[in-house]
Amino acid sequence: MEIFQINKNKLQNRLFRLDSDFYKKKYIELEKIVKKNDHIILNEISFVTDGEHGTVKVLEKGHAKYFGARNIFTGFLENINVGFISYEDHKKNKKTILKHRDILLSCVGHVGNVSFVPKNIGEANIVRNVILVRPDETKINTSYLFGYFLSKYGKNLFARTASGNNQPLVSLENAKEILVPIFSKKLEKICEEILSKSENLLIKSQGMYNKAENYLLSETKLNTWIEKNELSYEKNFNQISQYSRIDSEYFQPKYDALIKKIKEYKGGWNTVKNLLNIKSKNFNPEHNKKYKYIELANININGEIIDCSIDYGHELPSRARRTVKNRDVIISSIEGSLDSIALVDEVFNNSLCSTGFFVCNSNFFNSETLLILMKSFIGQKQLKKGSSGTILTAINIDELNKIVLPKVDKKIQSKVKGFINEAYRLRTESNRLLADLKNIIECAIERDELSALKKKNTL
Question: Which of 40, 199, 434, 453 qualifies as a FRET site for 427, CA 20 to 30 Å off?
């Protein structure tokens, strides 16, 4: 427990806060260090706003992506479990139509998580629990400001302004009052160079993942399959009685056409039941031991685990019951998040994941090929077909076992592995540069600008 006293004359602040959390020693010390430098208020150097306040219908597909606080992770904004909105709703909220180089901050949940909007995000908008910061480049460099919010100073001083008990929230007015230290154009230029390199590496990483998928589909000839949704079709009773299913979507002819195409592959085919090892045993975490815990929202579009929570066993949700090992592939069972599939690397070895995942490996496929198979339309269409339920639609183990996969040639698998490994290497280098950006800015704040410039030369 932290106990401290604050003199009445020190309670005066621009936010008129009286709650004790605002005056925690950690925040006071960080603010003192920032104030030793030239500084300014965020609202004086940026356009700051939050997302849509009305009623918007969130769609599975639509004109524009619709990002919320759950989509804001520290780094570049990515298409992870994103909803969509219509063209009309998108254009109605013009001020929050995302642009390249916008900075987004989570103001609920993981308060202080910050994302940079990359150049390839497409049409997108935000909900009200996200703060948008659009710097005036004539006053401050965007890359520097993003790096500041990556740093412990920007992150903590933003989180400090949150108020409320059950779910702390940073209001728009409070966000506008964040202190920002000011440095020279020389330091800002270095920040720009670092962030630009990081973004380019990220784009190359995404391109390498796409190359892996396109290569696999081309080599197996599955890239020639064309999805056709039939408006009407017939099935005889004796054709459906063996399935214990009567919903029409399950018997869409497009699924039969896809499975037929897979079975034509020259290397042969088999079912998930015979090709994959699925770990179904639950694990009971120890109460006083900390674990990394992976959820659906922690997986990016390229099948990488980009974040996790860390908690004691007794604080984890009851669904945190599956153990994952290095080289496992985790597959979401929940419709709406079926593409949340990831390859577990050594960083997350022995982590826990939600029971909403199937944890798999294979004696036939390497992990990279299995990842591509399940994230491409080959796996996605069959996962969609097998899903059932009313309140929570999901695919069960029996339906997963029925999925048909091509027995991809080992030489093709080896090349796919190379592409994916390069994609992940590029991503790692991109993240390292973001860490460099943060460290340089923290050095400038804590010591001086000259020290920060010297530090850049040693990275």
Answer: 453
pLDDT of residue 70: 86
pTM recorded for the entire structure: 0.86
Q: What is the DSSP string of 352-399?
A: EEETTEEEEE-SSS-HHHHHHHHHSHHHHHHHHHH-B-SSS-B--HHH
Nearest CA to 66 out of 49, 80, 48 is that of 80
Residue 164 burial by Cβ neighbours in a 10 Å radius (0-12, 13-18, 19+): exposed
For residues 357, 363, 364, 367, the Cα torsion angle rounded to the nearest 10 degrees is 50
C-alpha to C-alpha distance for 321 and 298, rounded to whole angstroms: 16
CATH of domain 8-182: 3.90.220.20
Residue 421: its H or E element: helix 410-446
Whether residue 351 contacts residue 324, with contact meaning beta carbons closer than 8 Å, is answered with yes
- Domain boundaries of the chain, sorted by first residue: 8-182, 221-407
Pairing relationship of beta strands 103-106 and 290-294 according to DSSP bridges: unpaired
State the Cα–Cα distance between residues 284 and 204, nearest whole angstrom: 40
Under CATH, domain 221-407 is a member of which superfamily?
A: DNA methylase specificity domains (3.90.220.20)
CB 367 within 8 A of CB 361: yes
Q: What is the pLDDT of residue 458?
A: 73
Please tell me the predicted confidence (pLDDT) of residue 236: 64
Q: Is 81 left (phi over 0), alpha (psi -120 to 50) or beta?
A: left
1 burial level (CB within 10 Å; 0-12, 13-18, 19+): exposed
For the residues 398-405, what does the mean pLDDT come to? 96
- Name residue, tokens 């390839």: 120
- Compute the half-sphere exposure of residue 73: CA atoms within 13 Å on the CB side of its CA: 20
Q: What is the rounded radius of gyration, in angstroms, for the C-alpha atoms of the chain? A: 25
